[in-house]
UniProtKB/TrEMBL annotation:
<dbReference type="InterPro" id="IPR003719">
    <property type="entry name" value="Phenazine_PhzF-like"/>
</dbReference>
<dbReference type="Pfam" id="PF02567">
    <property type="entry name" value="PhzC-PhzF"/>
</dbReference>
<dbReference type="GO" id="GO:0003824">
    <property type="term" value="F:catalytic activity"/>
</dbReference>
<protein>
    <submittedName>
        <fullName>Phenazine biosynthesis PhzC/PhzF protein</fullName>
    </submittedName>
</protein>
Length: 214
């Protein structure tokens, strides 16, 4: 069995929740894309990262069913784990920084895969949603406190690959921040926390707490 780490990304202030991320630190042990895809499917995390160059921050990201050019929470987790100034993804170079308890990335909304955003009137409506049938990638959200930029959200990948709900989705948070044009404090899933801030030139920062689970 290939060695891998498991991180929890976008954890709550008490260290709970967060989205589990598989990280294969020695990507060279599994260079073939089909083999990587099969391994990601076997692990079953929302995403798995293969590190191809730890010094330069070159990474390769997979869901259980597809390879991604960019994804938010894998980049936040990899930034924390590798502690490098940038990550190199097929979509582009992602800026990174560590700031106290938070790991941050800077990326562009157009790098993320398309999603269907559905705004609801209250956080309770989002809480009560049932998992939809496989189909579009749906990001359901509502304001908890619009003045303060606080949002309640849930993410439904709709891929039919066993991941019915995504506990924390950095790419969707990035896209929503770009659309709204303001900093956000998002609670997604069971209790994960995602922070965002728009930057000049169409860039967006996304940050959160990361813990090594095993």
């Amino acid at each position: 069995m290939t060695d891998y780490d498991v991180l929890r990304v976008f954890c709550a202030p008490n260290g709970g929740y967060g989205n589990e991320l598989g990280v294969v630190r020695e990507g060279s042990v599994m260079p073939d894309r089909d083999e990587r895809q099969a391994f990601a499917a076997k692990l079953g995390f929302s995403e798995t990262v293969f590190v191809d160059d730890p010094e330069r921050g070159v990474i390769d990201i997979y869901t259980p069913s597809a390879r991604l050019a960019f994804a938010g929470y894998p980049c936040v987790g990899a930034a924390w784990l590798l502690d490098v100034p940038e990550l190199v993804t097929p979509a582009g170079v992602v800026g990174t920084r560590l700031d106290g308890e938070f790991s941050w990335i800077e990326a562009r909304a157009e790098w993320a895969a398309p999603r269907t955003f559905r705004q609801y009137g209250t956080a309770a409506e989002v809480d009560d949603l049932a998992v939809p049938a496989p189909g579009a990638w749906i990001y359901a959200w509502a304001w908890e406190d619009e003045a303060a930029g606080r949002i309640r959200a849930r993410g439904f990948p709709g891929r039919g690959d066993g991941v019915e709900e995504d506990e924390a989705t950095g790419a969707a948070a990035l896209q929503l921040t770009a659309e709204l044009g303001r900093a956000l404090n998002i609670v997604q899933g069971a209790g994960s926390q995602i922070l965002t801030a728009p930057q000049p030139g169409g860039w967006v920062e996304v940050g959160g707490r990361v813990f090594l689970e095993r």
